[in-house]
Amino acid sequence: LLEGFKLTKTTLDGVIVSGITLRNCDYCIVKSVEVTNFSKAYGVIHLSSCEDCIVVGNNIHDCTTNDSVTGRISGIEIDSNLALSAVSKRLRIVDNSIESLTIGATFLAAFGYLSYGVYVAVELSVGHTISNNTIDLAGRGIKTLGLEGTITGNVIRDAYKYGIALMDGASDNVVSGNQINRAGSAGVYLFGS
Known about the structure:
twelve-stranded parallel β-sheet; globular
């Protein structure tokens, strides 16, 4: 159980750092943590090769980059590093607040608006529940490549591109009861799924 503390990044922009990384962990809980001021992160909270973990009631906010080298900002990211052979299964991402994951003009011109509220980065990642999260001001609210997930009851506002994207092999997912306001390109986007 990781609970009830605050992480603030104080290093310069351009350094890729996660606030919390769980790798090869089962039955872990990340609860009521505040994470702020990160620039590029493949998951401010990052889970890789984990099973049956819960990320609940966290507050991720005010993360930005304007670096000229590639990267992205993800509030919560699942399985972006598969140097480990297993994928994550049955994670619950619930009741989190993710706000203001922004990109500056230099980075935007070079790489696009690469920020995600929640990102399931591998198509074999399976059975996740992403529910009742509030995501304000990100490139994409929720993007999944995963299988057999449930995305329900989320509130997504001011996504630069998509509110919810199911892409590149995502299949057998259920998307229901979400509220998406002011998405730049599409509220819900399906591509290659």
